[in-house]
Design brief:
Elements lengths: L2 E3 L12 H14 L4 E3 L10 E7 L6 E7 H5 L4 E2 L6 E2 L2
Parallel strand pairs: 1-2
Antiparallel strand pairs: 3-4, 5-6
Length: 89
């Protein structure tokens, strides 16, 4: 399990820690299994990512992955990690 953590700013009118915690969690998942990551200001500058779920019609594998938004929006194909079949966009 990977975990992302952010400290809440308790001042009046400050934003909740949910968004920084989500960014820390995304970084922890991207770094690999069993990661523990504290939020840092550099994480706020990360490119937006999209979580994708795909099913391979060739080998019947179901999988999910996270990809940069600009790559997702491009015409580039995704491939099954098991059999290498090109997947429909």
């Amino acid at each position: 399990m990977s975990i992302g953590i952010a400290e809440a700013d308790r001042r009046e009118g400050s934003a909740p820690a949910r968004v920084p915690a989500e960014k820390a969690m995304m970084k922890a998942k991207k770094d690999g299994k069993d990661q523990y990551v504290w939020f840092s200001p550099e994480m706020g500058k990360q490119k937006p990512r999209i979580d994708v779920r795909k099913d391979c019609p060739e080998c019947q594998t179901h999988f999910s992955f996270s990809v940069d938004e600009e790559i997702y929006r491009s015409k580039e194909s995704f491939f099954c990690p098991v059999c290498g079949e090109a997947l429909k966009r």
